[in-house]
Amino acid sequence: MSVWVWVVSLIVLTAILVLDLLIIGHRPHEPSLRESSLWVVFYVGLALLFGAGLAVTNGFTVAGEFYTGWLTEYSLSVDNLFVFVIIMSRFGVPRQYQQKVLMIGIVLALVLRGGFIAAGAALLSQFSWVFYIFGAFLIYTAINFLRQGEPTEEEFQENVLIRWSRRALPVSRDFSGTRLTVRENGRRLFTPMLIVLIAIGTTDLVFALDSIPAIFGITQDAYLVFTANVFALMGLRQLYFLLGGLLDRLIYLNIGLAVVLGFIGVKLVLEALAGNNLPFINGGEHISWAPHVPIWLSLTVILGTLTLATAASLIKSARDRRAAERVPVGQP
């Protein structure tokens, strides 16, 4: 994409995020189901409209890459919400302040992912063998998804930076709105809000290690990678409140995501083999039998897998709920 396309896109997307942040700052509150639904529909509509614009100006292949990347990043972002719920619960963040925490976390995620995208694009342009590393990492991550499942509050472990912050920083006992510092008895203290933001920020960093290699397995166009990430993250705050307790019912989401990441990992390895130049693999020659996975097939597999995982989760949770309601009172 040309420089002016980058500039215009950055200006428009930044304006949307700033407007969203100003709305939260003006009136911190817990959004209603209707408000959350409207915002999610708005951001999803923006992504679909953006993809349609790409189809008109750059062709259906580019639009397909964007839609596939956006869908992958969006599904991985939904998985992030499980950890966000745990963090909010662990630190006891009041519901009316959770919007601002999430919005700041999203801004941090965009900054961090921007750096990862730039580094990933530079590496791939110089060293095609990086596809092997990305592919192997995604397959490894997919296996971990299957083995570990979604984390629970009991299983959640604070990372080194969070533990250090708790120990080294003078932190007050209670929140003071969304402020990061407060003065108590003449002493300046940090509020628990700072620790929460550190937890959200470091969590976003860990998730970026999975999501960025995944989308580079779909497209190597840095513009598409960046915009897909932005559109996936922009509606995450409202989606957090919209889904609410529904997250607990998505019991097969980790399996669906494992299949998606495993599929993209294999796709990356096949592309690395097709463009192989490592001397210890096939004598440094390209491997002609390595098939190319077209974008339409990637989109079909990812969309179908996520739809099946969601439907199976909702059916299973509904059956479990009906079975629990049939158990007579007093029996286990």
Secondary structure topology:
Elements: H1 3-26, H2 33-58, H3 60-91, H4 95-126, H5 130-148, H6 160-168, E1 181-184, E2 187-190, H7 192-216, H8 222-234, H9 236-243, H10 253-274, H11 295-326
Antiparallel strand pairs: 1-2
Helix pairs in contact: 1-4, 1-8, 2-3, 2-8, 2-9, 3-7, 3-8, 3-10, 3-11, 4-7, 4-8, 5-7, 5-10, 6-7, 10-11
How would you describe this structure to a colleague?
The chain has 332 residues and is mainly alpha-helical. It has one domain. It has 11 helices and 2 strands; from the N terminus they run H-H-H-H-H-H-E-E-H-H-H-H-H. It has helices at residues 3-26, 33-58, 60-91, 95-126, 130-148, 160-168, 192-216, 222-234, 236-243, 253-274, 295-326; strands at 181-184, 187-190. Strands 1-2 form a two-stranded antiparallel ribbon. A hairpin with a 2-residue loop joins strand 1 and strand 2. The N and C termini lie far apart (62 Å). The relative contact order is 0.15.
Summarize this structure briefly:
The chain has 332 residues and is mainly alpha-helical. The chain contains eleven helices and two strands, in the order H-H-H-H-H-H-E-E-H-H-H-H-H.
> End-to-end distance, in Å?
62 Å
Q: Over the alpha carbons, how many angstroms does the gyration radius reach?
A: 22 Å
Indicate the structural class. Answer: mainly alpha
Largest sheet: 2 strands, antiparallel
Defining key terms:
332 residues; mainly alpha; two-stranded antiparallel sheet; 11 helices; 73% helix; 2% strand; globular
